[in-house]
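Notebook p. 47: complex prediction with pyridoxal-5'-phosphate.
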Amino acid sequence: MQRQRNYPRLVCDLAGLRANVAQVTERCRAAGIQVTGVIKGINALLPLVTAFLEGGCSQLATSRLSQVEDCRSAGVDAPFLLLRVPQLCELADVVRLCQMSLESDVTTLDALEAECARQGREHSVLLMADLGDLREGFWGAEELVQAAVHVEKALPHLHLAGVGTNLGCYGSIRPTRAKLEELAELAEQVERAIGRRLELVSGGATTSYPLVVDGQMPERINHLRIGENILLGYDLRHEWGRTDLDYLNGQVFTLQAQVVEVRSKPSYPQGEIFIDAFGNRPEYEDRGIRRRALLALGKLDVGELSHLHPRLPGVTVLGGSSDHTILDVEDCPRPIQVGDVLEFDLSYSALLYLTAARDVSIDYHADSFSI
Ligand SMILES: *Cc1c(COP(=O)(O)O)cnc(C)c1O
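Predicted complex, structure tokens below:
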């Protein structure tokens, strides 16, 4: 029998996380690049945030002000960069809580200036350039340079710290040396227009990290905002096929969930197939009678269930609903029984949901361990 514990449970290896932070920040530092640790993937859970700081990230970033507020209340006094371009309704908190923000709109910049004046504070901004990924950012050099000059000349409480870009999010655009040279060129155009050097040229996120380790990052890029590769080290290894990341601990996080039913059933639904609990029309493959296990874990806890990666060979995720995950365990070398606890590696989106889920208990291990 398993120990009496609360499942589902997310087990976090703090030493493993600290080590990952150190590995990534060291390699970037050697290439003249400062790393801001992105904590949105872990909902700013304090022991994990602390591991980011201890591992060597001196600046933190997130998309949500509520997370910054939590960190501030817990006594974290590291500088914060706000990643999502702010809503007009949240500027008072942006100025109060964050030292720096990403910006892409002149109306917002003007309102931010007014808010800074009201609070008697200064605030730094990175102007975002959209290089084709089509999420946030000024479009074209002229618009970016005009905004930069406006901040520099007309908004005395704002400090134009630099420019940045975001790739590989909406438009799936790969950060290449050529793309980042475009950013470096834009930075230089801004510098010519304002007559001084910018401190930061922020070349993106996890997906820009390969350019650093391959020695392909243009020299002007001196800042990255990294979350996923530090937390999970999954995307570059498994989606990009990078084989040179063995120094990253890929099991900082372990999801444990308990089996509530095991039974052999047909793999093809019986009756008239209509729509599932979420209004989708999934495809089902008829593989005959198969051994299936049901977990007490669902989309409410982890979002997309296909983003769970079973550690036990022979286990595959078939699907599920808000509160259940259905596994095929037919090919599993050991029999699975009710009460068993199965372990999973996670994707970024699963981590995002799990760290915010009400019914998931979270365990922290201070020392590296193997489960
Ligand atoms: C989430 C985010 C990042 C960090 O992305 P990772 O893939 O976790 O490294 C960086 N910049 C912006 C603007 C983001 O929203």
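Notes: Residues 188 and 197 are 8 Å apart (CA to CA). The mean pLDDT is 95.
Next step: compare against the earlier run before touching the bench.
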